[in-house]
Amino acid sequence: MQNILIINQYASTPFSGYGGRSFYLVSELAKKHESCLVLANHTHLLRNVSEQNSGVEHNFGFPFRIIAIKVLKTRSSRSFVRIINWMLFMVKLCLLSESNIGFRPTKIIYSSPSLIGYVGAYVLSRRYKSKLYFEVRDIWPLTIVSISGQYGKNILVRLMQKIEKFAYETCDGLVSSLSSLPEHVAKVSRIKLPFLFLPNGIQLVEKNRSSQTKLVRSKEVRNILSRVLELQKHGRKVVCYCGGLAPANAMELFVEAASVAEKEQHIFWLVVGDGPEKDKLETLSQNHLLKNIEFFPSVEKEDVPLVLAAVDVLFLAHHFLDLYSYGVSPMKLPEYLVSGTPIIHVTNSLSLLKLFKCWLVVPVFEAKAIVAAVCQICDMDDIELQRHSDTAVQSAKSFLLYENLANELGEFVRLN
User: Fold this and answer.
1) Torsion of CA 27, 28, 32, 35, to 10 degrees
2) Cβ(329)–Cβ(178) under 8 Å?
3) What are the start-end ranges of the E strands in 325-390?
4) Sites in the chain below the pLDDT cut of 70
């Protein structure tokens, strides 16, 4: 048995936001190890802030301890308060005692994207003489520079660059959902580290909460499923994106594909989700006078499988930046895979679809290529569709269940 402490400032629970990667890994690790999750009591991502109260002892019915470090409230990812919270979180990490944690940690895993907090994790690891591992879920500050256009000599960016290099040079091992992260690390530091590729996973327990009772209560889901059924009755194949609408999701390509496919009367395009890009995308579709695309609001996480199973094709994409050559691991992809519905993944990186040998990867950022991929799926016979579907579901259950991922993580920190 190991004493494992996972630190993720932006983690949340199913009660406060959604049960994410860190939460499920800790809950599974707790079956074999003493485990604790440290998170911030408030972030701009939470749906129900009151659930992550300040304090040091939270159980939520699970056999591990949750420590919610108190920070300032903010509703925007661009607020200066967010930077102050990085500093607060880091300082308060340094002050965590053994009694706060509930045990003396032998392994500490610090999870990005926030880099400032790594300094606090480093202080803890030196105090408790424990091994320290750096989990990279997003390559900061490279992501900030690549996507937002922040100047590389910005003071905050330069500080992050120094901490990033410091992290690579002081940690005992790297964990990441990005398969080619070591290539980036080699450009930042000459140190070669033990590396574990750990993609985002799926928690089937949460998926199974969906029920007809919930469906009846959810007007949003009922409207979506009714519309999908109506379209399918008229011979239309429904291509759907279900998730957040942020710049990184490259959803303008989805709208462009709908425009290119306007004469393909058997194809209809559906967007289920909300986010900062939604108004822009709706305006874009209106400017093109598109009648083959519709937008619906987001649905509760436990209702998402109902939508994914109802449509004919699922869509996922990102912009083709050099940043993504180090790997991508979309949080939506495991949910897509386990649904069994055909998937089109537009990426210039190594996709799980390619690893699992199922469905279609589009390696070019072109609307025409997406329409061609949709038509290719529409032309598949039932035997081929079932083969792809079975492979996707079985692969997801074999390799992407958080129980299995946690076992891999536990073995990695034990050996390194």
Assistant:
1) -30
2) yes
3) 343-346, 360-362
4) 16-19, 43-62, 76-78, 147-153, 205-217
